[in-house]
Amino acid sequence: MSVEAYQGKLLPKERLGDLFDAVARSYRVLGPVARNGSVAIGPVERLEEMAMDYSVTVLPPKEWLHRPVETLFSVTKSLEFEAKEAIASEQPQAIFGLHTCDLTGIRRLDEVFRKHYPDPYYNRRREKTLLVVLNCATPPGPDCFCASMQGGPFAEEGYDVALTDLGDHFLVEAASDAGVAVVSPLQLDDASRESFREKAARKRQSVQKMPKSLNTANLQTILNREISHPRWGELKEECLGCGNCTMVCPTCYCYSVSDKLDLSLSRAERVRTWDSCQLMEFSAVHGGNFRKDRAARFKQWVYHKLNYWIDQYGAEGCVGCGRCIAWCPAKIDITEVIRDVRGGD
Ligand code: SF4
Ligand code: SF4
């Protein structure tokens, strides 16, 4: 069946394992796994290993596409370049049960690494990745504001398969040929109009339950005007410059590149590692550091997310997942900072 001909289906909850098995037949499955009181995306072999009732994982799934540490290539003593084979040989992977903010995060990274600055390492993984979204009908996390950022809570496009919890059943939608290929063999019943009405009602409930919000109306204009607002200066005393907020962010993509030489001088590797604009070293260049001040680095991060990103890529670089709030040791909340700079809601 083609994706154009695909209609939504109903999957009885007790058959979710059938969908998992259908995915696992062709893909290595990554899913939400409970660990030490938190949930992380990691390899799973059985449906029962997954914590499907989570709200937000610690790290976003970007770590499985844009790796935290990655060897780009190696050079041997003969000076012949040896392409790293690891990416080409990686098996197809499926991210099962990802939430809509993280789907949107991946779509924002696609804009960077597939469209504007094509990155072969990201792309070879991304092309082999199936995205099975679980729309957020569970209570949101305490810091979620995806509804303000077009980040969620329900996916409209960009997924392969989307699941919506309708009580006894999941509504199963497929938006790509790869998605249809895993769903079709299950021979599910067609969803009715009532199922889609129920989905819309659950989406409204989920939006209403969203605990935080960020008003984006005229925000670019306001940020451009308020570049010297006193709130930015106060952050010098609050922000620790630890970089947590960028590491957990599903859209932050900056990296550093270094060469590593072994002691025998016979082999070298070029390695890239996630980097952070919140770290002092990030802005160190020949002749000095152009952003020594922690407040300036925090402001740059916010301005990139909510202002410059729109000019660069056509949407905000924030999807409202709330992770930067949850994991900030100084309890800095981007929604409150913007409220302060706006002078209220
Ligand atoms: S800026 Fe914060 S809330 Fe927005 S996407 Fe990044 S981590 Fe999530
Ligand atoms: S996590 Fe908080 S303290 Fe650390 S760099 Fe980000 S805003 Fe500053």
In short:
It is built from eleven helices and 14 strands.
Annotate the secondary structure layout.
Layout (H helix, E strand, L loop, with lengths): L8 E4 L3 H9 L3 E8 L2 E6 L25 E8 L4 E3 L9 E6 L1 H17 L3 H7 L2 E6 L26 E5 L3 E6 L2 H7 L5 E2 L2 H16 L10 H7 L4 H9 L5 H4 L7 E7 L5 E8 L9 E2 L2 E2 L4 H20 L9 H4 L7 H9 L3
Parallel strand pairs: 2-6, 6-7, 7-8
Antiparallel strand pairs: 1-9, 1-10, 2-3, 4-5, 4-12, 8-9, 11-12, 13-14
Helix pairs in contact: 6-9, 7-9
List keywords for this structure.
single chain, 345 residues, alpha+beta, 2 domains, 8-stranded mixed sheet, 4-stranded antiparallel sheet, 11 helices, globular, binds iron/sulfur cluster
How does this model look, in words?
Helices cover 32% and strands 21% of the residues. It has 345 residues and is an alpha+beta fold. The protein folds into 2 domains: 9-208, no CATH class; 219-342, no CATH class. The strands form 3 sheets. An 8-stranded mixed β-sheet has the order 3-2-6-7-8-9-1-10, with helices on both faces. It has a 4-stranded antiparallel β-sheet with strand order 5-4-12-11, with no helix packed on it. Helix 6 (219-225) packs antiparallel against helix 9 (294-313) and helix 7 crosses helix 9 (294-313). The mean pLDDT is 94. One iron/sulfur cluster binds next to helix 8.
